[in-house]
What we know:
Residues 1-33 form the signal peptide. The chain is an alpha+beta fold. It folds into 4 domains: 36-130, Immunoglobulin-like, CATH 2.60.40; 143-265, Immunoglobulin-like (Sandwich), CATH 2.60.40; 275-397, Immunoglobulin-like; 461-568, no CATH class. 29% of the residues lie in helices and 35% in strands.
Amino acid sequence: xxxxxxxxxxxxxxxxxxxxxxxxxxxxxxxxxxxxxxxxxxxxxxxxxxxxxxxxxxxxxxxxxxxxxxxxxxxxxxxxxxxxxxxxxxxxxxxxxxxxxxxxxxxxxxxxxxxxxxxxxxxxxxxxxxxxxxxxxxxxxxxxxxxxxxxxxxxxxxxxxxxxxxxxxxxxxxxxxxxxxxxxxxxxxxxxxxxxxxxxxxxxxxxxxxxxxxxxxxxxxxxxxxxxxxxxxxxxxxxxxxxxxxxxxxxxxxxxxxxxxxxxxxxxxxxxxxxxxxxxxxxxxxxxxxxxxxxxxxxxxxxxxxxxxxxxxxxxxxxxxxxxxxxxxxxxxxxxxxxxxxxxxxxxxxxxxxxxxxxxxxxxxxxxxxxxxxxxxxxxxxxxxxxxxxxxxxxxxxxxxxxxxxxxxxxxxxxxxxxxxxxxxxxxxxxxxxxxxxxxxxxxxxxxxxxxxxxxxxxxxxxxxxxxxxxxxxxxxxxxxxxxxxxxxxxxxxxxxxxxxxxxxxxxxxxxxxxxxxxxxxxxxxxxxxxxxxxxxxxxxxxxxxxxxxxxxxxxxxxxxxxxxxxxxxxxxxxxx
Length: 577
């Protein structure tokens, strides 16, 4: 009996210690569970400053945080990954750390989102970005920026000229400006690349980098020209001991432009009820395909009217009113809109062509052509006009009267001679009259068909030209994104943009990977560069020797080859560099 009691007590002790051991292991597991911690070295910074974001995983992890969402509010200047292990009496500890240098894109309270790595989630962090005014600039800084506008108050849809300047008295190895984007306005760059020139300021030579824009506000009220940031790097010698791999970003300057506030006025009462066309100047010009004094019935004459406006795009110019004159038939052609970019802004052009067919002989008056527009310089309504035109059309009656004989050509002594010749000239066989009418109708129908066919062909050509233009603009936009990703050494962004661009380069091919691009490029050097990019994307260790610009040059060779091929085939190149 005593032995039985001892055995029972032994089992109870064993169960107790076993439960205690399981509980200890469970608590230890919780303590050692994967954690993800995100922190910043400062949570209040100026718009010109940078800060460091550190993401640390306490447990060994194969995943990595998704930092793509940071690009909405921050510029990622660097991204370094490190890992280490430590062993002590308390046990072993493994850490993986991502350290990012970030620069804010705008003023305000910005949010660093939470990150998820292998199920571990970090806390979101708020960063307050303050404004640093440029109004105290003395003009003696090595590098500075300025923004100029030609007006402080304008009318809706009127052209506003914006000039952004980077002014430097030192050499720069890098200069990048954020795109100018304005809410409720159309922004048109006046040149493909910023202008660069040298100016003497206070007795010193300065490099000027100037970007010009034409802005067209679409709504009345307050228009804000936002502050944009110029990221510049002075050309200084790198310290090989403190920065052997060139990762030091401390010498990057972030220079914000001053924000501008513009008052946009509604259409004035005097201009209501007319086509609103605010311009600096508007002119009309016309040409004719033939003289207006000797037109013939059934034969067309072409009138071309060109409207040119300084400060308006081609699409802003209103159509001319339709003409309606009894005895004349009008066949308008598809209008052509275009614009030219100059230092003074946009110059829009609208060309309207119409074929006019007289249906009978006589004199016809085309009314005056009048276009009302708002003079932005003198703040008043003006009108551009073309005077009325007189068309003299020769008909069949004029031909008949010239063929009638006179009495002096006949023998006055013979009464029958006075009658017989007149009857012969004035009487026309019915079959000849019917044939003349048939041929006239047939000619008119043929003319209508030819004009209609010509109109359709021109419409198809214009549609194809517009499609090519849109395709070229889309390709150029994607190519600019590629260049931006390459300059930032953004490998994921470069791969994404490259696949999108390749679909424009080889539109008939199915492209899903960089291997597909390599096969279509058919260049050993391009294949190696794409393979290097793939290896970099799937590696956890950054490659400091990677040169994305080499890949960009190889891709640009493919673009040039395609342009040369299209030129040799007599086609307009799809895009330019």
